[in-house]
Amino acid sequence: MPLPMKRLLLILPCLLLTQCGTPGPAPGPIPTDQPAASSGGMTQVINVSAYDPKERQRSGRSYSEHDVSALRASGAHGLIARAGKGGNLDEKCATFLASADRAGLLPGIYYRLQNHVDAVKQADQFVSRAKALARGRSWNAPSLLLCADFDAHSRLSDITRFLDRVEKGTGVVPVVYLENSEHLRLLLSRADSKTKATLRRAPYWCALYSHTGGAGRVLPAPGSPEGLTRQYDVWSHWTLWQYGGVDWEHGRSRPKVYSNGRYHFPAYFGNLDRPIERNVFRGSPSALQSFWQRHGLKLR
Fold this sequence. Notes:
This protein has 300 residues and is an alpha/beta fold. The protein has one domain: TIM Barrel (Alpha-Beta Barrel), CATH 3.20.20. It contains nine helices and 13 strands. Helix 4 (119-134) packs parallel to helix 5. The protein is globular, with a radius of gyration of 22 Å. 40% of the residues are buried.
C-alpha cells in the first residue's frame, strides 16, 4: 500500500473520534412540569444555619457567613438562612443574608417551629425578624423569601396557626418545609378538605435524601420526591426539594445526598471543600425569580 494512503487511513479514525467527542448545543430551560433527570441544569438553592459552615473535608473552595461567593460560583441561585427556631434567633442569619446579597444570590429565611413554644409567639418572632432584616440594609435583591419549617411531630393546628399569623403579619404566603416524617404525612393526608385547601396555597418544600428513607409502621418509603408528595396528598407537585442534607456521625459531618432512578446528585456541591444542605427548584432560574417575589417580603 502506498505511504500516503497509509497516513490517510491512520488520520481518518482520529477525525471521527474528535467529531464524536464534540458537545452538542446547550440544553434549554427546564420545564416546570418536568425536572431534569440529574443535577445538571437544575436550579440550585442552598440553605444554611448557625451550624454552617461544616468542617473542611477535601480540597476545593471554602465559604463562611462572611463570604458565600464560592456558593454562587458552584451554581447556586439562592440562599435560605435560618432566622430562628423555638423562640431563639439564629446569630448568623443577617451576616449570611448580607453576603448572599453581595454575591448575587437571592436571599431567603426560614423559621423552625417547635412544639414547646406557642406557635403564634414563634410566628410573631419570625415576622418581627423578617421585617428587621428587610429594613436593616440597602438590598440588591427585590425580595426576601419566607419559609416555615415544621417539627417532625408538629400539631396540625400549630401548622395552620403559624402560617396564618405569618401571612397576616407580612401579607406573604410562606413556603412550607416538611420533613420526611410518617407523623406529618399521616397528619396532613387525613386533614379535611378545607385545611388541605389552606395548606395548598403555600408551595411545598420537600425533604428526601434517599429512595429508601422514610418507611414507617403504616407508610412505605416514598422512594422519590413525587412519591413523597403523593403520600402527603395535599399538593399536586413539589416546588423545592432538599435532596442533600448533612448528618453528624462519629465526630464528622456526613453528606446525605439522593441518588436513584432519574435523579443523581454528587456528594459535594460543585468544588466546595465541605458538605452543605442543598435543594433544587422545580423550574428555571427566571421562574425562581418570580417565585421568590410571590412568596417573599419586598426589599425595594
